[in-house]
Amino acid sequence: MMNALTRDQAWHRLVAARPNLSFHAMDGLCLDDVPLASIAAAHGTPTWVYSAATIEGRLAALRAAFAGEGLAPAIRYAVKANDHLAILGLVRAGGAGADVTSAGEFARAEAAGIAPGAMVFSGVGKREDELRRALAAGIGQLNVESAEELEMISGIAAAMGVAAPVALRVNPDVAAGGHDKISTGRKGDKFGIGFDDAGALYRRAAALPGIEAVGFSTHIGSQIFAPAAFEAAYRRVLGLIGALRGEGLAVRRLDLGGGFGIPYDDGTAFPFAAQAAMVRRVLGGHDLELIVEPGRWLVGPAGVLLARVTLVKRAGAERFVVLDAGMNDLIRPALYGARHGIVPVGAADAAGAPAPAEVVGPVCESSDRFGTHDLPELAPGALVALLDAGAYGATMSSTYNGRPFAAQVMIADGAPQLIRRRQTLDELWRDEIVPPRR
């Protein structure tokens, strides 16, 4: 089928910049050549729709970029980005492991067939029961974020008679990330161990019972689009590794973290070839096992949130397009001021002349807004797709305002398949217990 969009239409650039999207003259907006309108007809709205081929392709491209530089870092997918078992299964099939931050994510990764030895356990607040479970299962690496946590792990592991593979998450004091709330590697951030303290703590780790000090981890933020910030962080940590090795301490591993940006507009993608070349130039020849932790980059562009227009409200010159999807489904715009591209799904709707409209959800909060977008006139019942919603969408959603969890669909081998049914109204209170009263 021919692509029906012309270049003078405002949302053409958004669709053209995404190889998994196309616009057909009869079927409208398609993901992997599957009409999104047909998915809405079958499963209702709001509905998350994911492209399996996009995730598989991006995982292969990441491997190829590093392989082109003679590198083969272990890939540990950040489960928090999207934890659905179907997506974790794609990650496992592609040879990647998992970066988990809780017992729940650990259990999900295990349920998807990811071996604990291929997992990294991150986070500043790991509980004792979580650590015991991970250690008993043979976790591949614990990223330690404080001196207090290191002592706790030592006591637990020694009592269990095991050696905990520990990497210290060092904070290199490098500011990076698209928003203050997703910058994690600066002095004063809650994450990581201060750079000036990391050397002494590694010496302590090497001497503690129940601890196998394997190396360092670093993660400086999210939505980073250039290798320069990563290079600054890696060079600082490499200097620390060199000093410790000079003292005779073994340091064999460096976890490079993640944070690779995706464009939510029609901008330039993260230059993974340049990133891989930088990693080889900076870290090659230092005899280090490398780990990389993609999350958003891997799954974000694979998903859309399909929504329907409930009504169009006019207030003077203002036009509010009210959707049946809200901040309970996709909280990123309310939480971070994030912006997701919005594209009309129907071919007839797309033919209309665009004009600014404030796109909002139905939730009873002033922050339930998706921003101002150039959209055609949209009647109640019209469909739109919120783009790049595969990461930090469904995993951060809630049932606030009594709105059930949306359905989830995956397109695999050209066929859409329901991977999570829509929550029913009575399931909203199914697990609640009302105690009897006299």
Structure, described:
It is a single chain. The chain is α/β, with parallel strands linked by helices and 438 residues long. The chain has 2 domains: 12-51 and 300-428, Lyase, Ornithine Decarboxylase, Chain A, domain 1 (Beta Barrel), CATH 2.40.37.10; 122-294, Alanine racemase (TIM Barrel, Alpha-Beta Barrel), CATH 3.20.20. The chain is 29% helix and 24% strand. The chain is built from 13 helices and 21 strands. It has helices spanning 12-16, 36-43, 52-67, 85-93, 103-111, 128-137, 147-160, 195-207, 227-246, 272-283, 296-299, 332-336, 347-350, and strands at residues 21-24, 28-31, 34-35, 47-51, 74-78, 97-100, 119-121, 141-144, 164-171, 193-194, 211-217, 253-255, 289-292, 303-315, 318-323, 342-344, 355-360, 369-375, 383-386, 407-412, 415-420. The strands form 3 sheets. Strands 4, 14, 15, 16, 17, 18, 19, 20 and 21 form a 9-stranded mixed β-sheet that branches. Strands 5-6-7-8-9-11-12-13 form an 8-stranded parallel β-barrel, surrounded by 4 helices. Helix 6 (128-137) crosses helix 7 and helix 9 packs parallel to helix 10. Mean pLDDT is 94; it is low at 178-186.
Output the keywords.
single chain, 438 residues, alpha/beta, Lyase, Ornithine Decarboxylase, Chain A, domain 1, TIM Barrel, 2 domains, 9-stranded mixed beta sheet, 8-stranded parallel beta barrel, globular, diaminopimelate decarboxylase activity
